[in-house]
Design a protein that fits this description.
The protein has helices at residues 15-28, 37-42, 89-99, 115-126, 161-175; strands spanning 3-8, 49-56, 59-68, 73-80, 105-109, 129-131, 136-138, 148-155. The chain contains five helices and eight strands; from the N terminus they run βααβββαβαβββα. The radius of gyration is 16 Å and the shape is globular. The protein starts with a strand and ends in an 8-residue tail after the last helix. Strands 1, 2, 3, 4, 5, 6, 7 and 8 form an eight-stranded mixed sheet that branches.
């Protein structure tokens, strides 16, 4: 059975578990889509940030790095151990997380230009999220990276451009600590 554990500033993640979390994060995502080890660890000082881990038989099998804001939750990173993908772990974990709070869940995805991006969007769509056509780019996470063209998805009802802009502005201000674009 999948066991879930939330780590936050109030419930710190032990160093050994953080190392396993960062290993799975860095092997599952391109370097421009996650922070350095030190920067990722420093996020635990932010009250809105947390990491939900999924374990099976005591071993880390999945992770979700999440942010909690008054009007929505933001799923910044989501990864399942490559050896365990396709076994329903990701769907179960995401479903339990969405069901645990009435606020919408927002996440970023690559545009559907590749087979893997289309499969990822399909997975999130099957989990009840909707793809927005609101123009969006992820600010750089590391020095030397540029803006990364992505798209937003959200659970619940579809949103207006004004709502999407509020989400983008919150992410830019709170997650990426960067200037909010003038529209």
């Amino acid at each position: 059975m999948l066991q879930l554990q939330m780590y936050t500033a109030q419930t710190p993640m032990p160093d050994a578990e953080f190392d396993a979390f960062f290993d799975l994060l860095s092997t599952s995502l391109p370097a421009n889509e996650h922070r350095s080890y030190a920067a990722q660890k420093a996020l635990f000082g932010r009250s809105a940030y947390g990491v939900l881990t999924g374990t099976h038989d005591g071993a880390l099998c999945a992770l979700m790095a999440v942010w909690s804001f008054p009007k929505f939750r933001y799923l910044e990173h989501f990864a399942v151990d490559p050896a365990l993908r396709g076994q329903g772990i990701g769907g179960e974990m995401l479903g339990r997380y969405i069901a645990g709070d009435p606020r919408p869940l927002v996440l970023e995805v690559e545009p559907p230009d590749t087979d893997i991006a289309r499969r990822r969007i399909g997975f999130y769509t099957r989990c009840g999220l909707y793809l927005s056509d609101f123009p969006y780019a992820q600010p750089p996470l590391n020095a030397g990276d540029g803006m990364l063209p992505l798209m937003l998805m959200r659970s619940g009802k579809m949103w207006s451009d004004a709502e999407a802009k509020q989400v983008r502005d919150t992410l830019y201000r709170e997650v990426y600590c960067c200037p909010i674009p003038r529209d």
